[in-house]
Amino acid sequence: MNNYISTWIRAFLLESKVDGSLLLKEFIEHVCVMVFYPIICFFSFAALFAKLLLQIVMARGMMHSYSNYDSVIITGGSSGLGAALARNICMDWKAGFEKATNKEESTSKVITLVGRDDERLKKVRDDINSEVIGAFASKIKIETRKCDITNQKEISQIITERNYDLVISNAATDSIQLREEIKDEEDVIYQLFKENVMGMLHVMLSSIKQARKLNTTESPTLTTPPKKLLVISSVVAYHGKSGGSYGCTKTAIFELIRYLNFAMSSACFLKDMQGKYCSRLNQMKIQVAFPSGIYDTKMGSNIENLEKLPGSKTAMECARLIKNGLDMDYDFIDINHPLMFVAFKILNALPMSVEQFVTSIVQKGVVYL
User: Fold this and answer.
1) Over 60: is that where the pLDDT of 64 sits?
2) Exposure pattern of 221-231 as b/e (b: 16+ CB <10 Å)?
3) Per-residue model confidence as pLDDT tens digits over 127-182
4) I need a surface site. Which of 10, 143, 239, 248 has the fewest CB within 10 A?
């Protein structure tokens, strides 16, 4: 009887051209989700509560300030979030100098803004000098460097010409902006990955290589705290295809950073990877920020009614929240509305067939946040 039924099922699947193996896999996936997710969630809640208690206890000890960084470089610093971060850093530096005695805060600060438009870079520099720095111009210096981050040799030279305490990789573009210049959709995707993935890789790997060379057991220049790299990502990095080709570029970088952080940690079981980047000497710390809904930037202005979405904010508000995340030394700085964060996380937890259906609906209403 059982043989008859199984034979009939196989014949039915073959005749109807149904992929039975895929259906079986998806069925097993659904069963695993229903059985194991509640157990995992229980331990996750316990870990989350422990993490909350630890952050409350350690908050004061973990606090840092931009005043601890004597040198900062920002790519994409000619407008938008990059310019807002530069202004926020200089405001913090100025506040440090104002509160300092003659013996304190004597070290001068330098911030380098990198971008493709030299005139806009200089305008950002002049605005910050006149509106923020003022009398502290001798203590806080703003430099500008014209550069395309897709030029590996040029951006690597700029990133490593000084041992910057904080490197902020912010430069990026989106499909809407590129379509104004590029006609073919295939070329738009190519340029997106060239700028958002390869360009950011040039910044990241140059910083990591410099940190590894400068901070070794034989070198007396080991920095404390470690050199920091902040990568500006996006909320769609959690679920790339919801943001189209732009979202896929952000997911690619996010997953690479997760791997690099893991490979540089003592928990890495890939022994051949340990020490190939930065060793356990805390030579480099990589942090990622996930903004969304910044409506007063060129990228945000392309999205209609963006300011009405939950969690939308100005570039300066976003810069302040990113600063708070840096102060608390978070690896991942999420500054999105809780509903937005949870929505993308749930998409990743869904079985594949359900996720594809939900994503198709999401893409109709939410694009390039």
Assistant:
1) no
2) eebeebbbbbb
3) 999 998 888 888 999 999 999 999 999 999 999 998 899 999 998 888 878 888 88
4) 10
- The pair of structure tokens assigned to 309 is 């979405």
CA 17 from centroid of its chain's CA atoms: 43
- 284-290 and 140-146 strand pairing: unpaired
Beta strands in the chain (DSSP E): 71-75, 109-115, 140-146, 166-169, 227-232, 284-290, 332-334
What's the start-to-end Cα distance of the chain, in Å? 56
Instruction: Enter the tokens of residue 275.
Output: 């020490």
Torsions phi, psi for 211 (to 5 deg): -60, -40
Give me the amino acid identity at 321: L
Q: Strands, DSSP E only, in 16-78?
A: 71-75
Pair of tokens at residue 158: 């700029």
CA distance 17 to 279: 53
Exposure string of 286-298, with b = 16+ CB inside 10 Å and e = fewer, is bbbbbbbbbbbbe
Phi, psi of 184 (to 5 degrees): -80, 135
In the beta sheet, which residues pair with residue 230? Answer: 168, 287
Instruction: Pull the structure tokens for residue 363.
Output: 């893409």
| 62 contact partners, CB below 8 Å, separation of at least 6 | 55, 327, 328, 329
The DSSP code for 130 is I
| Cα maximum dimension of the chain | 93
Query: Above 80 in pLDDT, residue 344?
Result: no
At residue 104, the pLDDT reads 52
**What pLDDT score does 249 carry?**
92
pLDDT tens, position by position, 226-237: 788 999 998 888
- Nearest to 282, CA basis, from 295, 296, 264: 264
Comparing 13 with 210, which gets the higher pLDDT? Answer: 210
φ, ψ for residue 193, nearest 5 deg: -70, -30
The length of the chain is 369
SS3 331: coil
The predicted structure's pLDDT at residue 331: 86
